[in-house]
Amino acid sequence: MQFKHPEILYALFLLLIPIIVHLFQLRKFQKVYFTNVAFLKEATWQTRKSSQIKKWLVLLTRLFLLAALVFAFAQPFTSKTTSFKKEKETVIYLDNSFSMQTKGNQGELFKRAIQDVIANVSENENITLITNDKVFKKTSIKAIKNELLTLNYTSSVLSKQAAYLKCKSFLSNKTNTLNNVILISDFQEDNTNLNILSDSTTNINFVKLNPLNKNNIAIDSVFISKVNPDLLELKVVLKNSGVSVENLPVSLFNNDKLIAKTSLEIEQKSETIFTLPNHDVINGKITINDASLQFDNTLYFNINEASKINVLSINDADDSYLKRIYSITEFNYVSTQLNTLNYNLIDSQHLIILNELKSIPLALNAALKQFTRQGGNLVIVPSIKNNNESYNTFLTNYDLSFNEIVNSEKRITSINYAHPLYNNGVFEKQVKNFQYPKVNSFYTLASKNLSAVLQFEDEKLFLGQRQNVYLFTASINQVNSSFKISPLIVPTLYNIAKQSFKIPELYYIIGKENAFDVDTKMQQDAVLSLVKEDISMIPKQQYFNNKVVINTLEDPSVAGTYQIKNKNEIIKNVSYNYSRNESQLAYKDLSALEQVTVSNSITEVFDTIKSDTKVNALWKWFVIFALALLIIEMLILKFFK
Questions:
Q1: Residues contacting residue 143 through CB under 8 Å, at least 6 positions apart
Q2: d(CA 360, CA 347)
Q3: Domain check: are 343 and 430 in the same one?
């Protein structure tokens, strides 16, 4: 038993007063004479005996009466908690990721969870409720009920460890507070470990909601597998996390018009191919019918009118190898000698290559400096007969400079496989033994401001990158180098050009860092917007002379095909899809967790919390006891002789 006001118990010392009054009575007896002494003795003895019993009974009832009143005012109670808590803080995490679309005994797990939370939390109880994309801080169910009922699924997902830590961050550090953290989720496997630290002040409850079945088929990915002048093949990859299915319909739409349909059998993984006309603009959508998760039954993609990358090569050497790499189907390749260069061409380029110039005139120096500041990419291939003073005057724009040429044979043996030029499938695996290209002479660098792309065997740079500038340290003509006939030259120069202007891909994944370029001219203060039906947003963007670089992450948050618009002009389309990480219905095993109460029922958890924090007030019983003692005292005084 505990007391809300234990200081009142000091009043129990007042019980000494009736004890003193009863034990030290100050009243004197008066003598009365009787003729029959025998009768007198009997009467006196009987009176004194009954009087003593009555006094003790009255004393005890009064002591118990006063004690009961003191206990009543101290407000005693019983509770399962070890001490009386003045405040209670509850933080609830409600998982609204797409995997919660699966159905339980009473419908979709997420929708049912909302109903159970509303039903089991007191309307005016102060709580904090968080989802993957929203926070309702220090509020009540009554205040947020309507918002909860309209909550929807999100592609933004917190790992369960992150959700737990986020819940903990909303708890105050006050002492004498009872904290409850409740995580409500299906606890889908997310490849992160749950590390729950022991905390005596916080009760941690996990509510694991279980779906009725774990079958799900998803459209995993789409890509162009083959292209010829007239047709292209679009390969669709589907994955199944349940029992095998026969005759699954797969439909292909263009602008909501059905243009192709097929069916397939799928066990764990299956593929199908659609053949489409090349060079057609397609705002595509692929759909399947699967009763489990709905978000992965549709995949959007689009094929825009082909955009070509502008490449300008300024030559003092043969550029035939560049013409072969930068084909007319993908690039607008322009080749010119330095002495015939039209400087007006520079601003419209995406990539400029200085092909073994012996010197860099001041006019070209200034033009290229402005070009790179505006986001253009530059490749510098030096000549064997460099004018180092001219080169270094130019290279100081990028905090770079050449030393004197070194006439020594070196092999190019080190490839930075993690570099963006090579990490997109150029190599199936890291190659250790191949015919290394070599150079007969090279320039060392006076600075180390370049990230390595290709290196010599002594780890000196052959090709390095600084922001949008790529610098070779050796001439690559066939007299000085075998790099031109190496398998490395094509992916290296091809990907440099591809990265100079990032043409929108078939589709992007919401929640990942995505970047693409839009070839357009814009007025000052104009912005591009992404528009889909009633959704319109302005993405993060950076404007250069000949392009706009658009970056997206969490927005757009709704899957679909969006128009890229400059005011009312539709420039092109771009598609976004939800990540398929939630499609695999595999779940965490919570049985080994310590310091955590695991349940399958939201109602059960809240009932347990209410039971643990319930205070059974006892003061009413002590008041009743005091009244009973008062009645007993009155009866003793009236009827006991």
A1: none
A2: 18
A3: yes
DSSP string of 175-221, one letter each residue: SSEEEEEEEEE--B--S--------TTEEEEEEE---S----EEEEE
Distance CA 577, CA 574 (A): 10
- DSSP sequence for 537-551: E--EEEE-SS-EEEE
Which residue do the tokens 């814009």 mark? 522
Dihedral of the alpha carbons of 354, 355, 357, 362, in degrees to the nearest 10: -10
Q: Give the separation between CA 457 and CA 434, rounded to whole angstroms.
A: 13
Task: List, for residues 544-573, the tens digit of each pLDDT value.
Answer: 877 899 999 888 999 999 999 998 889 999
- Total domains in the fold of the chain: 4
DSSP 8-state symbol, 28 = P
CATH number, domain containing residue 426: 3.40.50.880
Q: What is the pLDDT of residues 138-190, one digit of tens each?
A: 888 999 999 999 999 998 888 889 999 999 888 887 777 778 889 999 999 88
Cα angle 86-603-172, degrees, rounded to a multiple of 5: 30
Are 32 and 67 part of one and the same domain?
yes
- Cis peptide bond upstream of 556, omega within 30: yes
Q: In the numeric block, which tokens belong to residue 105?
A: 């005994």
Indicate the pTM of the whole model: 0.74
For residues 487 and 434, what is the distance between their CA atoms, to the nearest angstrom? 10
